[in-house]
User: What shape does this take?
Amino acid sequence: MAKKTSTFKAKSAIELGEKMGLTKNDFDVFGKYSGKLNPEAVQRLKKGGKAKLILVAPTMPVHGTDNQHYIICERLIQAFSLLRKKTLLCVPGFSLEDMLVHETYNNLYPLDDVITGCGEINNIAYMHNFIANYINNQFVHNGHSTALPHHLMWSRASTSRDEALKRVITGFGNTRPGRALKEESVMQVLNSELLAVVAASLTEEELKARLAKIIVGISKENTAVHLKDLKLDEIVFRMLKGALCPKIMQNRNGDPVMVYSSPSGNFLPEGNPLAFSVASSLADFVVAKFDSGVPLSIEKFLNISCSENEIKPDMVVITAFVNELNIYGGASLEDAKQKDLGALEKGILVLASDIENVKKFGVPVLVSICENREITREEIKIIDKYCSDLGVKPVFSNTKSYSTKAGIDFVKSVLEIIRIEKSYFKPIYNNKMALKDKINTISKEIYNKNKVTYSSKAEKEFELFGRMGFGELHVSISRSAFWRDPGQINELQIKSASLYAGAGLVMATAEDGEFMPYYSGKYNVERLRNALCQ
Assistant: This one.
C-alpha cells in the first residue's frame, strides 16, 4: 500500500464539500473529515449532469496475489486533478473484513470513518436477520397463520465470511413446545436482497415499493408471501432509507471520493445508479471503481443497472497486472513475478476475452497494465500486439516507480478515447427472453461456454419462478470472485436459483458460486494495521 507522505494534509468535510460545489447545508458531518449527503441534496442532485462516466474494473483476481488495483484508479484521479479536470471517484462501502480479506481495497482516509461512520452494511445485516427472526418466532407461536410462508425463501445473513455457517442446524437445547431442529444456511450480507434493493433504488418511494415486493416464501396455498404481508415493509423502510444517501470522503491525496452502498459484483449488480447520478451533477468526469472481475461486475452492471436506469457509460478501463496474466497462462504464483513470455502469450488471451466482452456492449475500452517491477520491452510488445489487434490502446505503469508524466499520459489516453470513440451501449440480451435463454446468452457471450446444465433443484426453481410470473426479470449469475483454470470444461453448471423480486432479478448460482463465500486464504492484518495507524 502506498505510504502516507509528509505532504498529505487531510481536508475537513466542509472543505471537501466546498471543493465539490456543496454547501454545509447539503450534508451532515461525521467525524472531522467525512460527511453524508442529506436526502434533500440527493434528490436535488440526482437529476444528473453531463459528466462522462468511466468504469474501472480489474481482470479476475488470483488467490495469493497481492496486486493493488486501486492504485491505478487513484493515479487516474490524481492526474485528472493535475490537469484541472473536475473529477469524482465513486467506490462501494466496505466492512472491516473486506479490508482484511481483499488483496485490494479503497485507499480512503481516515479508514476509521469507513468502519464507524458508514455503518449501512451492519444495519442491513441487522434488518435482514430481524426479518428472519420474526418469521422464525412467528412459526413457533403462530404457525397456523396463513400470512406465514410454508416454504421459506429467506435465510439469515452475516457481515463476515464464516465457512462454518454455510449449513447449520438450529434448535439444539430448546425443549419448549413448538421448537424443532432445523437445517438452515447463512448468507454473507453482500448477497442480501436488502442490499441489492437499496443499491437499485433512486428515491425513497422506489425503495418502499421494492421492499414491499420482496418475497420471503410460499404459502400453503402456493401463493407468494411478501414482506408487506408480514407488515414489516414499513419498519424496514424506516431503518434503511438513510442508506440511500452516499457519503463524502477523501483519498490520501485529498481528492473527494463518493462512497455508496452496493452488493459485490460476483453475486449481484455492483454499483449504485443514484450515487452515479448525484456524482455527475458535481463533476465533469465520474470514475466508478468496481472490485469484481470484468466478467462479473461489468456484465451485471451493464445488463441490469444500466438498462434499468438508461445509464450509458462512456468507456471502461480494464486494469491488469502482468503477474496475473502469467498465472492465467500457467505460471506458478512465485514464477509469475518474473518475466515469462510463454505464460504471458497464453494468459493474455484472458485479457483479450475481457476486452471483447466489453466491446460486445458497444462501450469503448482502454487497458491499463501495471506491475510491481519494470515491464520489459518483450512483455510490452506481446501485450501491445494483442490489444492493438482488438483496436484497444494499452498504457503501462509500475507500482514502485511512478512519474507525474505517466499519470498525465494515462489521462490523455482516456480523454482521447472519450473524444474520438462514441459509446453505443446496448445490453447483450432482451429482457423479454426466457430466464434460461438469458443465462445461455451470458454463458456463451461472457464466459465462452457453449453449454449450460442445471441441477434438479435449479430446474424446479426456474419452473416455479416462471409459473409465478417472473420469467421476464433480469438474471444475475453468482460465481466465485477468483480466477481458476477452466481446463477442458466447456459448460456452465447452475446448482440453484433464488428469486429477488424486490431487486427485479433472479440469481442463478453457478457450481463455484457461494452464498457464504470461502475464506480467501489470508488476512492482511499488517497492512490494515499500518493504514489505520497512519
Summary: Residues 17 and 23 are 6 Å apart (CA to CA). Residues 121-242 form a domain with the Domain 2, N(10)-formyltetrahydrofolate synthetase fold (CATH 3.30.1510.10).
